[in-house]
Amino acid sequence: MTFLMLILVLGLRRLESSWPHWMINTQRHQAWLQRLASRFGNGLLLWSLGIAVPAAVLSMLECGLEGFWGQWLWLLLGGAVLLWLLGAHSEFRQVDELLVRGRMSDPDGFAALAEDEFGVQGDPNEPAVQQALAEQILGREQRLFVAIFWLVLLGLPAAFVVVLNGAWAQRAERENTRWATVLDQWLCWPAQRLLIFSMALVGDFAAVLDCMRGHWLALQGAEKHASMAARVAMDAPEQEPGSPFYQVIAPLESLQALLLRCMAVWLIMAALWVVLG
Fold first, then answer.
1. Where do the H-state alpha helices sit in the chain?
2. Over 70: is that where the pLDDT of 249 sits?
3. Cβ(151)–Cβ(82) under 8 Å?
4. What pTM was estimated for this model as a whole?
5. Residue 145 CB coordination number (10 Å)
6. What is the C-alpha to C-alpha distance for residues 182 and 176, in angstroms, rounded to an integer?
7. CA–CA distances in Å: residue 113 to residues 48, 94, 109, 122, 256
8. In Å, what is the CA distance from 267 to each residue of 57, 152, 177, 224, 253?
9. Model confidence over 203-235: pLDDT tens digits?
10. pLDDT, tens digit, for every residue of 173-188?
């Protein structure tokens, strides 16, 4: 049922539907924590009430809803929770919209969408802006892969803990709570390393292994390592001299193609895990 829930939610996220604000708000997790913090304060109590208790409730529901109708009810309830965790707007569809504007040679529309969806401001022809945009895209999609990893491995309660703890870690950075950041790094580390290995499988295997030599076991700098691996794993873009804006969108096209191939590998592995588990 977990795999069916994942496929259903990934499909729904690709649709251009009018989702409620609480499903698409980029600060929805922070809003949930802030609502509880206004009543109970910050600290371990907030972590327990905002993350641990809901995860425990999800675990009880998953175990308690048995039988044909119980499983279908869990699919609906769990699917709604997973859709809230991942967000109703697919990162891949947002990048597709960016690429469409790029192929139309619409730099103004491209820059506006990059700012609205990814928070990257500036002239898209500037290398620094291009790099910031690629890092934002990769970072956001890394969080998606992390959630999928724990969902398939341990179920929806684990995915809830990982995603909400990531939001908690962002709050903790402002409060200098070191343990929350370290916990988030440990929870993300196995999925990030598996993603990098997936990049090697679907990209340049030898180049990825070479650039990751000595970094596989490092806990810090995981996003930097993923960016390094993606750069060497991506296909070299073909030159199209007739399209002046192509030099901007070509790396994004290669990155999008790489991550879509990684997603295909992950879904195959998830299906095998469910069948053999």
1. 2-14, 21-24, 28-40, 44-47, 53-64, 67-86, 91-103, 107-118, 127-154, 156-175, 178-202, 205-211, 222-233, 246-276
2. yes
3. yes
4. 0.90
5. 19
6. 12
7. 37, 9, 6, 11, 16
8. 27, 10, 35, 25, 21
9. 888 889 898 888 888 877 777 888 888 888 887
10. 665 567 778 888 899 9
Residue 232 has, within 13 A of its CA and on its CB side, a CA count of 19
Amino acid identity, position 39 = R
Q: Is the dihedral of CA 82, 87, 90, 91 positive or negative?
A: negative
Hey, what are 30's tokens? 């922070």
Cα radius of gyration (the chain): 20
Distance CA 90, CA 10 (A): 8
Backbone angles phi, psi at 212, to 5 degrees: -95, 0
User: Which of 253, 271, 274 has its CA nearest to residue 137?
Assistant: 253
Single-letter amino acid, residue 267: L
Q: Which amino acid is at 56?
A: A
Reduce the DSSP state of residue 243 to 3 states and report it.
coil
Q: Kindly tell me the burial class for residue 1, based on how many C-beta atoms sit within 10 Å of its own C-beta (0-12, 13-18, 19 or more).
A: middle
What does the chain come to in residues?
277
For residues 156 and 235, what is the distance between their CA atoms, to the nearest angstrom?
Answer: 34
Residue 17: CA atoms inside 13 Å, Cβ hemisphere, count?
A: 15
